[in-house]
Amino acid sequence: MTGAVVAGAAVAVPLLSLAGRAAASATLVIPEGWRASQIYDAVDKALALPAGSTRSSVGTADLKLPGDAGGNPEGYLFPATYPLEKDATPQSVLRFMVDTANKRFGGAPVAAGAQRDAMNGYQAVTIASIVQAEAVGKADMGKVARVVLNRLQRGMPLQMDSTLNYALNRSTLNTTVSDTRIENPYNSYQRMGLPPSPIDNPGVDAMRAALNPTPGNWLYFVTVKPGDTRFTADYAEHQRNVADFNAAQNSKAQRSPQVSRPPR
Q1: Which CA distances in Å does 105 have to 11, 111, 148, 169, 233?
Q2: Which helix (H) or strand (E) covers residue 83, if one does?
Q3: What's the pLDDT score for residue 17?
Q4: Is the Cβ–Cβ distance between 129 and 200 less than 8 Å?
Q5: Residue 118 — left, alpha, or beta (φ > 0 → left; ψ -120 to 50 → alpha)?
Q6: Which of the 8 DSSP states describes residue 15?
Q7: Smallest Cα–Cα separation from 163: which of 120, 203, 193?
Q8: Which residue, 2, 7, 25, 213, is most buried by CB atoms nearer than 10 A?
Q9: Is residue 131 a contact partner of residue 199, using CB atoms and an 8 Å limit?
């Protein structure tokens, strides 16, 4: 989904304080989990600018990003409802988003939580972005974060479909074996460790889960159907869960014939 969301839409994002700012003529809602590319498109539409204007403005926006980001704001375009003042520009909107992320993600509790799991703040945001993409809802976020950390600590590839979706610029449940073999730094089936950057822009709940994951020994998970996400440390059990996922996908009339989630 790409595009500006009008204020009042049923999107669960916080309204930023407008203290000290002039009254805004409009607002822009950025949902949790949107990628930078979606946000650029939404800002273009909200400001009635030609497509690509916001993307091309990133380099001149003077964004306060961590050094590890290399100038890429992915992960730091904080999801919220933003005021759009009459003189708003792509640069000012992006700065507002990044400044908000720094306030939410840059405090002492965040630093302490990251250090506890031997990671820096940028890595914590990267994990939060994976959690945001993979978890069906808030209730599973802590467990998903624990799987990510457990796999990293054991030297296992993450094997997250969400990173493949990012590499292929798509959003789908349909991952094929050939997908997992692509040469791409975001292919976490082939590459060890975290992806080079966050894969979306996570909210507070996902960041909280990344810093305070649920205790457990899980190494695998799959959402068989809405409300049925199964976590396990046993590979054989996970394969059975994956088989149930594939069976559920097969039962859908609109299912593409090549769908088959590879066992991790």
Answers
A1: 21, 8, 19, 26, 30
A2: strand 81-84
A3: 38
A4: yes
A5: left
A6: B
A7: 193
A8: 213
A9: no
Mean residue pLDDT across the chain: 87
Dist CA 205 CA 168 (whole Å): 26
Task: Reduce the DSSP state of residue 27 to 3 states and report it.
Answer: strand
Which ranges of 11-66 would DSSP assign to H, the alpha helix? 36-46, 53-57
Residues 118-174 pLDDT 10s: 789 999 999 999 999 999 999 999 999 999 999 999 999 999 999 999 999 999 888
CA distance 131 to 143: 9
In this prediction, residue 262 has a pLDDT band, given cuts at 50, 70 and 90, of low
pLDDT band at 59 (very low <50, low <70, confident <90, very high): very high
Half-sphere exposure of 196 (CA within 13 A, CB side): 12
Two tokens at 72? 């890429």
Q: Tokens 């700065």 sit at which residue?
A: 95
Amino acid at 72: N
